[in-house]
Each structure stands twice: as structure tokens, then as C-alpha cells.
Automatic annotation (TrEMBL):
InterPro entries: AP5B1, AP5B1_barrel, AP5B1_C, AP5B1_middle, AP5B1_N. It comes from Lipotes vexillifer. Keywords: Protein transport, Transport. Residues 688-758 form the AP-5 complex subunit beta-1 beta-barrel domain. Pfam families: AP5B1_barrel, AP5B1_C, AP5B1_middle, AP5B1_N. Residues 780-872 form the AP5B1 C-terminal domain. One of its GO terms (cellular component) is lysosomal membrane. Residues 261-626 form the AP5B1 middle domain. This is AP-5 complex subunit beta-1.
């Protein structure tokens, strides 16, 4: 079989990238890797095609070479292809090196028994050191790229197999003193040195001359695998969080070095640090962390080696280098940083965070550094949050949060303000203009005031509750702060009960210091102010979270009054949830009377069954057993008898269960007739359902409440008539309809499911005017046109046309609303917008690419919607 053509490979690669798992499960996956390796040697494929094949092997090595033998064979074939390349310039040498390295590392074939490993490692080391860059590896123009690729491959292999280059430390030190690529060599030497120190410390052995230069291994010759076999742990070279793991420090403390080994280690570290200024900022930061991690906890290795670098880096403007300096401070503390250094760093961070032109990510970085500043001598127990001792209120005055800040910046500044409030509790000065605690209370009051706006965005409410949670977590032991916070949140709920889900989430997250008093005041707010009917569901949702055994009479009185207003299924279920919470809290007599009344009065049979079930449980079970019966079940209990099984099945049949929706709902074509807009809904089912009830809820209350749609029976594969859903807009605007389905399965279970929301577009609200007699249409349109002013407005815009022109656009989108037509260049269009608005369009003097549109309307608010609609007509076809 000949090589695969370029077009065939392009198709196969596209199919593979679209879904690798599906491709590998198909029949074409069996020989994909073998064909790829063989076609890399074909002269009929161009180099760009071969590079794309190698790119696939770099991205998906686990799929192409799923086990160690396959990875070994692939690496061997790739190395053979590399050797067979002609000496002319080629774009394949670097991808082949990377692909062979990736195959061995990802396939788990890297080891002393692998022939490909014994070939690849000396080859990479020779290319990196400049020994094997002869005619067999291309012209001189490729030497530097090949050398850089070899360094990257060696670093990747050392990361995957710690200790692999432990026997080459001396050689790497010698190469660092020569001319060449400093950055990749420095990073590789630092990584290999760190890994060797950890492995030798675990083995309780010294460096054993590893830092002394030795001979470079040759291809096929022996390689030192001792450290790689002992270093089975995968050590990550990236910097961890500042409170560094104590495991590495304790491990390195067991490493005992002779005076000669300690001297060689200090010389190696000093050599790396002296050349660090030649590296990029990111590479310098990684180098500093690797060396700092290697020396932390190592006996006899003073951190004074880093002091010359600190003199250079304390004034750096690079965030990566500043982060590395702080990491060194966390590692060595007062052994490396004096009190003056600490004060300088704090002042730098504070002033930099106040710069007005600072981008948001950098601003958050500086604030994070201040919040997690590693002090030399921190007070308090380890892990406790506290502001640095040298960071006072005067220094941080420019970092106080404001309502004008970005939400993320505001929360970070608020966190710092909370820590300052902890420090300022005992040393508040009398002459101070405003204490941090007073500023904090005013800020929280401002956040609550913005969150209380009915028309305000939801993000403002979310920010208010995030700030409240942060204050409750940081200042949990300060009642002087939590008391006004509790009362302020109660006032917020009184002003906007629709935030009940946010309150429930806050109560689930905060501790008892705020949670318990907040529950009491919220329960008082609910039972003392029932509110209007639209707020009842929020009151019931809140009461289900805060109801307990206290204030039973007030709670039951509220529920008795609310039962008469719970007319739909959702409110009845919310009311029963409160009854369930009271049951679990051990509320007795009065609740039994309420449950009996609900069992008789509720209109929904499911609600009556639930009330009856709760009454039976209350009447026949003691409080401990009642809590177990109503609590969540972690595992289904073993059925002791058929009676128990029958009762459990009966209870399951009584409950409405949530299930994945076997229903697909979509919008049909627009019906432009009738007194109100009507949506045509197409419904399909995946399995047979009975008594389907679709319930719709309009977000933001743009429309009047929508009635439910009922279907007696639906079968899969059987065509159904469109379902009609009349709309009653309160103003002409697009909306989003939340949809919930309630249905019965063939087994008799009642289920409910949430369906994807339906989007009502602006054009779905269009209605035509009644058609006047023939011959009077122009006069009728002119009367409508004149009636829009002066109450309304007139506007002009340009409507782009598609390739089919104005006549096709009007016939497809605006045909029912055309009042006067002079095709193909002029149309007068009249549209009625519910509830009582009108939209009139004059499309005249059409050109090839568009048509000028003059519009009048008596509703200013629809102008942006009309503009977006007309500009989108050509794109819609």
C-alpha cells in the first residue's frame, strides 16, 4: 500500500482533531500511528504536511502510542527518520526531536532498558553542548535552533524523570562557563540540582562528586540511571504557594554534606546567580525559586548567597521578579531580609497598588501580596490572617475601598480593610477623623443601598453579599461590627425580598457568629411583614431556611394567613417546604392543625397528599425518628417486608420527582394575526408522556403572567399540532421565558423537569393593523404617520440589503405588515406593537446595497430595538 496523499491526511487529521475519542473508537484508528511513522519517510509528501503529522504526535501522544512498547517503537522510528534526513536545511529536525522526546516521556518508555532512550539522551546532550552539530545534522544555519530544542527536550525529560541528569551536573556546570545559550542551560542546571539534592536527602547520602565535571555519555554508551530510579516522586518545578510545604524542608535537613561538597554546592549556586541577570524576568523568577527551594532547610548553606541579587531586585518593576523576591522572603525570613528590607517592600507594594494607571490584574497582584505578606516575625498562631505589623492605617489610607472600584478590586481592598479593623480595635486614636470600622460600616451601607434597587443589576446584589460574607469571615469575633451588619441585611431584605436566594446562600456559608442572629431577624421580618402576593414565594423560601422551634405561634400564624394565597403549585410546594422544616425542628400541636387544613384546602392533589403525609408522620413518629424520616437518605435501606416495599412505592408515587426532560420544545413560525402575539411551539418527546403541563415564567416581568399549556398525551415519532401560547406584553421588548414541564410517565410516576429557556424576539411581537378598504390604504397610512408626532419620534437609518434585493427582503420578513407597496423600490409598512404602540416604516429609493428607512413611532423605548432588527434583516437572509 502506497503512502497516503496530502488531501487524505488533511481529511483524517481534521476528523481526528474534531473528536479524538470518536476517531480512536472507529476502524481507521488501528493503523494511524503506523501510517504516520511510515509516511514521514515518504518523498511524495511535502515538509509542511509532515510537520502537521508531527504536530499531531506532539498533541496526542497517549492516543497514538498508548503503551510503553508502542512508544518505544515510535521513538526508535522517529530517531531513524532523523538520521536519514539529507544534510540540506529541513524543517523536520526540531519536530522530530520533540516528537521522539514526547513519545518516550508520555508513553512511559523512558528507562535504562529502552534502546531509544539510550540513543536519544546522549544525542540531546551532544546537540545541546555543541558536539554533534556536524554535517549529519544539517547546515550551520540550523545549529542554534537545534541546540535550543535539545535544551528544552532535556529539561522536559528531567521534569518527567527527576534525577535523570543528576550524573551530568558537573558537565552542565562546565558548559555554563562557556559561550552559548545561558537561559536554557541555567534553568536545566537549577532543576537538575534541586532534584538531585532531594533524592540524595531521601537516600541519606551526600552529593558524591556529582558537581565535579565528568565525561559526556556517548550514543549507545552507559547512562547514569541511579538517581532517576531512586527519584520516583514527580517533583514539580513551578513555584507553590508562599507557605511552602514543610516536607521538602524536613527532607533536605537530613542531607549531610562534606566540606568539599558544601563548597562545590555554594560555587554552583553562586555561578547560577551571577549569570541570572542575562535571563528574562520569568526565567529569573523560576531560577530564584528553584535555588531558594534547594537551599531552604539545607544545613551549612547560608542564604547570604542571594543578597547581591536582592540589591538588584528590590527595586524591580517586573511582577514575576517581585513575586520571586517575596517567595525568598517566605523561605528565609529574617535570615536574608532585614527590618529595613521588610519596610521597603511593604512601602513599595502599598504605593504601587495606589497607582491610578495600574491595570486591574497588576492591582490585584499587589493587593494579594499585601494580604499574604510574609513577615519576619508574625504575631499570632501560624495560618491566622492578620495585617503586617508595619502596615498601619495611615500607610493604607489610599487603599480604602470605594463603590467606584471594580468588584474584584473592591473585595480585595475590603479584605485589607477588615484586617486593619482587627488591628485597630484596641488602638483607635481619639483624634482620628474616621476609624477603619466606621469607614467599613459606611461602605457596607452603600453596597446594601445599591443592592436594594429593584431595577439594579444583579451583579450589585452579588457584590453586596460577597462583601458581607468577607466581613463575617474576617471579623467573626467582633460583635461591634456584626450587629450593625445583621440589622443592615434585615433592612435589605425588607426593601427587596427577591434577594431571598442570596440570603439563603449567605446563611449556608457564614458561621454561627452572624448566622444565628441573622436567622432571628430575618424570621421576624418575614412573619411581621407578609408583603404583597408577588413577594410571598420569597418569604416562604426564606422561612424554609430560618424556621425553627422559636417563635412558633408567629410562624404558624403567618403560614395560616399565607395558605389562602397559595393558589398555584409552586407556592403550595414552597409552603409545604416550610412545614417540612418545622417538622424537622420539632414543632408540634399548632403545625398538626395547619397540616390538616392544608390537606383539605389545597387545590393541587399533590400538595394535599404531601400535607396528609406530613400529618401522618407527625402523629405517629417521635421527634428523633421524625428527623431521620425527613432527613436525606445516603443509601437505600434493605426492605424488611413486602408491606415496607409497598409503602415505599406508594410514597414514591405520591411525590413529584425531578427527572431529565424527555421533551424538546422549540419555536415555530411567527403568526402575525389576532389581537395579541401568539407563539407557536413545536413539542417532541423521546418517550411517551401523559398529562403534560408546560408552565412558563417571564424573566424581569416584562409580560403579564402566562397561562399553562396542557397536552393529554404525546408519543414519540407521532406528529403533533403546534401549541399556542398567547403573550400579553406590558411593553414591547424581547424576553426570556423559563419553562418547566410537569408530566406523568407510563409507570404512573409524576415528574417535573426544567426545559431550556425560550427566547422571544422583538419581531415575534409584531401585529398587523386592520386592512382598510382598497384605495384608502395610502390615506390610512398617512393618518397613522401624522398621529405619531409630536408625542412620538422620527428617525432615519440605513438598512443593508442582501443579494436578492429589497423585494425579497420585504416578502420574507415584512409581508403581513405592508400597507402600500410600489415594488421593487418603495414600501410603506405599519406594525402594531402590543400593548398600545405603533411602528411605521417608509422604505423608499432602494439602491443595490441598501435602502434608506424613515421610521416613526409613538414609543421612544423601541428605537434601539428597531435599529438592531432592521440592520439584522440582511444577515438573516
Amino acid at each position: 500500500m502506497g503512502p497516503t496523499s496530502r488531501e487524505t491526511w488533511a481529511q483524517r487529521l481534521g476528523t481526528f482533531r474534531a473528536s479524538p475519542s470518536a476517531f480512536m473508537a472507529g476502524p481507521e484508528s488501528e493503523d494511524l500511528g503506523r501510517h504516520l511513522l511510515s509516511d514521514l519517510r515518504s518523498e511524495k509528501l511535502s515538509e509542511p504536511t509532515k510537520v502537521s503529522l508531527l504536530a499531531l504526535s506532539l498533541e496526542y501522544p497517549a492516543q497514538l502510542w498508548p503503551d510503553a512498547p508502542a512508544a518505544e517503537a515510535a521513538a526508535t522510528s522517529l530517531l531513524d527518520t532523523l538520521v536519514l534526513l539529507p544534510p540540506r536545511p529541513s524543517a523536520l529536525r526540531r519536530p522530530l526531536l520533540l516528537a521522539a522526546t514526547t513519545a518516550l516521556a508520555a508513553g512511559g518508555a523512558l528507562g535504562p532498558t529502552s534502546r531509544a532512550s539510550r540513543r536519544l539522551l546522549p544525542l540531546l546532550l551532544g546537540l545541546a553542548s555543541g558536539r554533534d552539530l556536524g554535517r549529519s545534522f544539517g547546515p550551520a544555519s540550523e545549529q542554534r535552533p537545534l541546540q535550543a530544542t535539545a535544551w528544552e527536550c532535556l529539561r522536559e525529560l528531567e521534569s518527567c524523570k527527576p534525577g535523570l541528569l543528576g550524573g551530568c551536573l558537573g558537565l552542565l556546570r562546565a558548559l555554563l562557563g562557556q559561550e552559548g545559550a545561558v537561559q536554557p542551560l541555567s534553568l536545566l542546571l537549577a532543576l537538575a540540582l534541586r532534584n538531585a539534592l532531594v533524592i540524595q536527602a531521601r537516600a541519606r547520602a551526600g552529593l558524591q562528586g556529582l558537581l565535579v565535571a565528568g565525561d559526556c555519555p556517548t550514543e549507545g554508551g552507559p547512562w547514569n540511571w541511579v538517581l532517576a530510579e531512586e527519584g520516583d516522586a514527580h517533583l514539580q518545578p513551578q513555584a507553590p504557594s508562599w507557605p511552602a510545604a514543610e516536607e521538602g524542608e524536613c527532607c533536605l535537613a537530613t542531607l549531610e554534606l562534606s566540606p568539599e561538597e558544601a563548597r562545590e554546592l555554594r560555587a554552583a549556586v553562586a555561578q547560577l546567580l551571577d549569570a541570572s541577570y542575562l535571563l528574562t524576568p520569568v526565567a529569573q523568577a523560576q531560577l530564584l525559586w528553584l535555588l531558594g527551594w534547594a537551599l531552604r532547610g539545607l544545613q551549612g548553606q547560608p542564604p547570604v548567597l542571594f543578597k547581591p541579587q536582592l540589591v538588584r531586585l528590590l527595586g524591580t518593576a517586573q511582577l514575576t521578579l517581585l513575586h520571586a523576591v517575596l517567595a525568598l522572603k517566605a523561605a528565609f525570613g529574617e535570615a536574608l531580609f532585614t527590618a529595613q528590607d521588610e519596610a521597603l517592600l511593604l512601602r513599595r507594594l502599598t504605593l504601587a497598588a495606589q497607582h491610578p494607571a495600574l491595570p486591574l490584574p497588576a492591582h490585584l497582584f499587589y493587593l494579594h501580596c499585601l494580604l499574604n505578606f510574609p513577615e519576619n516575625w508574625p504575631l499570632g498562631p501560624a495560618g491566622e490572617e492578620a495585617a503586617p505589623l508595619l502596615l498601619g492605617s495611615q500607610l493604607c489610607r489610599g487603599l480604602l475601598p470605594s463603590l467606584l472600584h471594580d468588584p474584584m478590586a473592591l473585595l480585595a481592598r475590603l479584605h485589607l480593610l477588615c484586617l486593619l479593623c482587627v488591628e485597630d480595635e484596641e488602638k483607635e486614636e481619639k483624634g482620628q477623623d474616621q476609624s477603619p470600622r466606621q469607614y467599613l460600616e459606611e461602605l457596607l451601607a452603600g453596597l446594601r443601598q445599591r443592592a436594594a434597587l429593584d431595577s439594579g443589576p444583579r451583579a450589585l446584589a452579588t457584590l453586596c453579599f460577597q462583601a458581607s460574607y468577607l466581613v463575617a469571615r474576617c471579623l467573626a469575633g467582633q460583635p461591634v461590627v456584626l450587629t450593625p451588619l445583621t440589622h443592615g441585611l434585615a433592612q435589605l431584605y425588607r426593601a427587596r425580598p427577591a434577594l431571598a436566594p442570596h440570603f439563603v446562600d449567605l446563611l449556608d456559608r457564614v458561621g454561627p457568629e452572624l448566622g444565628e442572629p441573622l436567622k432571628v431577624v430575618l424570621r421576624q421580618e418575614v412573619v411581621s411583614r407578609p408583603g404583597r402576593d408577588e413577594a410571598l414565594r420569597w418569604h416562604l423560601q426564606m422561612l424554609a431556611r430560618v424556621a425553627d422551634g422559636d417563635a412558633q405561634s408567629a410562624t404558624l400564624g403567618f403560614l395560616q394567613a399565607a395558605a389562602a394565597r397559595c393558589t398555584d403549585w409552586g407556592l403550595q410546594q414552597a409552603l409545604l417546604q416550610v412545614c417540612r422544616a418545622l417538622l424537622r425542628a420539632g414543632v408540634g400541636g399548632g403545625l398538626a392543625d395547619l397540616l390538616q387544613d392544608l390537606a383539605r384546602q389545597l387545590e393541587d392533589p399533590d400538595g394535599r397528599d404531601h400535607a396528609r403525609l406530613y400529618y401522618i408522620l407527625l402523629a405517629h413518629l417521635e421527634e428523633p425518628k421524625l428527623g431521620v424520616a425527613l432527613g436525606p437518605s445516603l443509601a437505600a435501606p434493605a426492605l424488611a417486608s413486602s408491606l415496607v416495599a409497598e409503602n415505599q412505592g406508594f410514597a414514591a408515587a405520591l411525590m413529584v420527582q425531578e427527572a431529565p426532560a424527555p421533551i424538546r420544545l422549540s419555536m415555530g413560525p411567527h403568526r402575525a394575526k389576532g389581537p395579541v402575539p401568539v407563539l407557536q411551539l413545536q413539542v417532541e418527546v423521546l418517550e411517551q408522556v401523559y398529562s403534560l403541563e408546560l408552565r412558563f415564567r417571564v424573566e424581569r416581568q416584562l409580560y403579564a403572567p402566562l397561562g399553562a399549556v396542557h397536552v393529554p398525551c404525546l408519543c414519540p415519532g407521532r406528529p403533533t399540532r403546534p401549541l399556542l401560547l398567547p403573550l400579553q406584553p406590558r411593553r414591547p421588548a424581547p424576553a426570556r421565558l423559563a419553562v418547566r414541564a410537569l408530566y406523568t410517565t407510563p409507570s404512573g410516576l409524576t415528574c417535573h423537569a426544567h426545559l431550556p429557556p425560550l427566547l422571544v424576539n422583538f419581531a415575534d411581537l409584531f401585529l398587523p393593523f386592520p386592512q382598510p378598504p382598497e384605495g384608502a390604504k395610502l390615506g390610512f397610512f398617512e393618518e397613522l404617520w401624522d398621529s405619531c408626532l409630536p408625542k412620538g419620534t422620527e428617525s432615519r437609518l440605513w438598512c443593508p440589503l442582501g443579494p436578492h434585493g429589497l423585494e425579497a427582503l420585504v416578502s420574507r420578513h415584512l409581508e403581513p405588515f405592508v400597507m402600500v407597496a410600489q415594488p421593487p423600490t418603495s414600501y410603506f409598512i405599519a406594525i402594531r406593537l402590543p400593548p398600545d404602540s405603533r411602528l411605521l416604516l417608509r422604505l423608499e429609493a432602494a439602491q443595490a446595497d441598501g435602502v434608506p428607512v424613515t421610521l416613526r413611532t409613538d414609543d421612544w423605548a423601541v428605537l434601539p430595538l428597531v435599529g438592531d432588527y432592521l440592520r439584522g434583516l440582511s444577515a438573516a437572509g
